[in-house]
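Weekly sync, protein design subgroup
Attendees: M.S., D.O., the rotation student, P.L. (late)

Item 1: inverse folding check
M.S. brought a backbone from last month's batch and wanted to see whether the design step gives back something sensible before we order anything. D.O. pointed out we never logged the input encoding, so this time it goes straight into the notes. Structure tokens as presented (240 positions):
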């Protein structure tokens, strides 16, 4: 609070705090990468979404959005309802929630960061893209065997530096606000402000090898290279 002022219709910061404000955005992005969008967190999210989708026809969950008086009641208790209800119609959903409880999660196969030059024209990767890249006839993958998470992480303004939209002031005696070009502050700031990470999961442990291979084929077909940092760990494949 001591380093900011309201000037006109916006909050401005002291110019000497430029790097501290930048670090605020960078820390947020780092939290998304290491916590909120962690591969295991996303695996649980994908499984819960699948469980809700499978239960929707029976529980009519999506119909709640049409009635605000009912929608506000929709919370985590729907998970407990799925877990405890004996109805056969909820069996698949119940099994998925049980897998989450037992940490028998969708198996994370691998990931890659979309090359910077391909970000502008990037389209979300789908399970169909992965399945259609399969070459090994030993195992026939289906779309329902694969889950894909397209994770976008940025500093709140896409590919732009968020501080471009923030004004600064010299000191508390000054009434002038102004932007600061990043090259006036440091040449160590990143050249890019956005990551797009594509992660692929196998819903069945025994298909990790096949899904991983198809994922690599997709990268070769799309970019001409394997964009992932390394292959799927052998112990992960053997464990399945």
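Designed sequence read out in the meeting:
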């Amino acid at each position: 609070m001591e380093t900011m002022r309201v000037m006109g219709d916006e909050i401005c910061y002291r110019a000497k705090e430029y790097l501290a404000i930048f670090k605020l955005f960078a820390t947020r992005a780092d939290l998304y990468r290491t916590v909120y969008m962690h591969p295991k967190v996303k695996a649980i999210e994908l499984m819960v979404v699948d469980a809700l989708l499978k239960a929707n026809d029976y529980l009519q969950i999506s119909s709640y959005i049409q009635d605000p008086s009912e929608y506000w009641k929709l919370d985590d208790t729907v998970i407990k309802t799925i877990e405890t209800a004996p109805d056969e119609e909820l069996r698949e959903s119940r099994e998925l929630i049980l897998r989450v409880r037992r940490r028998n999660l969708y198996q994370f196969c691998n990931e890659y960061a979309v090359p910077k030059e391909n970000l502008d024209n990037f389209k979300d990767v789908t399970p169909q893209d992965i399945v259609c890249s399969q070459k090994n006839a030993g195992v026939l993958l289906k779309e329902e065997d694969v889950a894909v998470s397209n994770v976008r992480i940025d500093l709140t303004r896409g590919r732009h530096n968020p501080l471009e939209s923030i004004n600064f002031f010299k000191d508390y005696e000054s009434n002038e606000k102004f932007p600061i070009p990043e090259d006036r502050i440091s040449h160590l700031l990143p050249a890019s402000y956005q990551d797009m990470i594509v992660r692929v999961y196998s819903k069945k442990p025994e298909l990790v090898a096949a899904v991983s291979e198809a994922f690599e084929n997709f990268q070769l077909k799309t970019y001409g290279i394997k964009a992932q940092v390394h292959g799927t760990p052998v112990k992960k494949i053997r464990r399945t």
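Discussion: The longest helix spans residues 39-59. The two ends are 53 Å apart (CA to CA).
Action: P.L. to compare against the previous round before Friday.
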